[in-house]
Amino acid sequence: MILGALALLLAGCIPHGSRNLPPPRHGSRPPAQGQGSAVSLRQCLSGLARADIRYRLLDGRQAGGCTTVNTVQLTDIGVPVTNLGAMTCPLAGRFAAWVREDVRSSARYYFGAGLARIETFGTYSCRGVNGVAGARLSEHAFSNAVDVSAFVLDDGRRITVQYGWNGDDRRVREFLRAIHSAGCRRFNIGLGPDANAYHYNHMHFDMGRGPYCR
């Protein structure tokens, strides 16, 4: 029932077609999803509540072109997640669905274990793409991206993107690629270690202009 409600919330927004397209062109940036009308925000928040996703609505701030307007902080999605800050509501919904439906099931499939914790490098950050000074603003600057770095299983094993993506353990490699691919189906943009050197230690997912998966 809970997952069904979440699926209905997200189904209309999940992009279709090829994910391995050229990177989106960069021009003037439209408002981030979830930072639009009060009506769309209320609808999204209602969907989170129906899916039993617990969150805190944040006060909006804008500075230097960066914004946390109409954002939430996830407080309970069924699995503890570190370092989550401001997220647009659609990003929060997609992330919760990815964790609950994709990462948890993949952990069971590949390792026969539950998921105890997910570690991230955070969400909102007022900076340019890849942290490069002078670059166009990252989706992180609009609270529209999340960087995921590691997964802790309930048997104590800790799987990191940095050491697992091209590591010696085949199951770990397959697990990481499976959840990365699932993320590409959930989010508009999905990047991992194969994208470029900046992503050697994490998976980046955002709701910017796509689709693009690498």
Structural class: alpha+beta
- Domains, number: 1
**Terminal-residue CA separation:** 33 Å
Gyration radius, in Å: 16 Å
Contiguous uncertain segments of 5+ residues:
1-34
* Helicity, as a percent range: 25-40%
- The overall pLDDT, averaged over residues, is 86
What is the H/E order? Answer: HHEEEEEHEEEHHEEE
Helix count equals 5
Per DSSP E runs of 2 or more residues, the count of β-strands stands at 11
Biggest pleated-sheet summary? 6 strands, mixed
Please state roughly what percent of the residues sit in beta strands, choosing from under 5%, 5-15%, 15-25%, 25-35%, 35-45% or over 45%.
Answer: 15-25%
Shape: globular
Protein name: Extensin family protein
InterPro entries: Extensin-like_C
Pfam families: Extensin-like_C
Domain Extensin-like C-terminal: 43-214
Brief overview, please?
By secondary structure, this protein is an alpha+beta fold.
Write the topology of this structure.
Blueprint: H1 2-11, H2 38-50, E1 54-57, E2 62-63, E3 66-67, E4 71-76, E5 87-88, H3 89-111, E6 115-122, E7 145-153, E8 158-160, H4 161-164, H5 170-186, E9 189-191, E10 203-206, E11 212-213
Parallel strand pairs: 9-11
Antiparallel strand pairs: 1-4, 2-3, 4-5, 6-7, 7-8, 7-10, 9-10
Helix pairs in contact: 1-2, 1-3, 2-3, 3-5
Domain Extensin-like C-terminal: 43-214
Pfam families: Extensin-like_C
Protein name: Extensin family protein
3D architecture notes:
The radius of gyration is 16 Å and the shape is globular. By secondary structure, it is of the alpha+beta class. It has helices at residues 2-11, 38-50, 89-111, 161-164, 170-186, and strands at 54-57, 62-63, 66-67, 71-76, 87-88, 115-122, 145-153, 158-160, 189-191, 203-206, 212-213. Strand 7 and strand 8 (158-160) form a beta hairpin. The protein is built from 5 helices and 11 strands; from the N terminus they run H-H-E-E-E-E-E-H-E-E-E-H-H-E-E-E. Strands 6, 7, 8, 9, 10 and 11 form a 6-stranded mixed sheet that branches. Strands 1-4-5 form a 3-stranded antiparallel sheet. A two-stranded antiparallel ribbon has the order 2-3. The protein has one domain (2-213). Residues 43-214 form the Extensin-like C-terminal domain. This is Extensin family protein.
